[in-house]
Amino acid sequence: MSIVNRCEYQDWKEFGARVKRCREQISMSKEKFAELINRSENYVSELEKGNNSASLHTLHQICIALK
Questions:
Q1: What is the dihedral of CA 19, 21, 25, 28, to 10 degrees?
Q2: What's the pTM?
Q3: 54, 44 in Cβ contact below 8 A?
Q4: Closest CA to 29 of 48, 13, 11
Q5: Rounded distance between C-alpha atoms, residue 18 and residue 49, angstroms
Q6: How confident is the model over 26-54, as pLDDT tens digits?
Q7: Burial label, 23 (beta-carbon count in 10 A; 0-12, 13-18, 19+)
Q8: What is the DSSP string of the chain?
Q9: pLDDT averaged over the chain?
Q10: How far is CA 37 from the centre of its chain?
């Protein structure tokens, strides 16, 4: 079995700030955004503050929602 050197993303505060900026630029409410990515408003709030990370599936949903 080989050992894989994994680099995990660490800058969730900056990621959250970018998500919030993008969401606000297209005038999308937090409620609508949460609905589109199938997550709660609380999750979106915590993500935008940098307190939550996101799975690959959630990242994909964010990309689709923000185009």
A1: 50
A2: 0.83
A3: no
A4: 48
A5: 10
A6: 999 999 999 999 999 999 999 999 999 99
A7: buried
A8: -PPP-------HHHHHHHHHHHHHHTT--HHHHHHHTT--HHHHHHHHHT-----HHHHHHHHHHH-
A9: 91
A10: 9
Both tokens assigned to 2: 């080989």
Look up residue 50 and give its two tokens: 């940098």
Contact 33, 44 (CB under 8 A): yes
- 1/36 Cα distance (integer angstroms): 40
Question: Closest Cα to residue 52, out of 42, 62, 60?
Answer: 42
What whole-number distance in Å separates Cα of residue 21 and Cα of residue 60?
Answer: 17
pLDDT on residue 36: 97
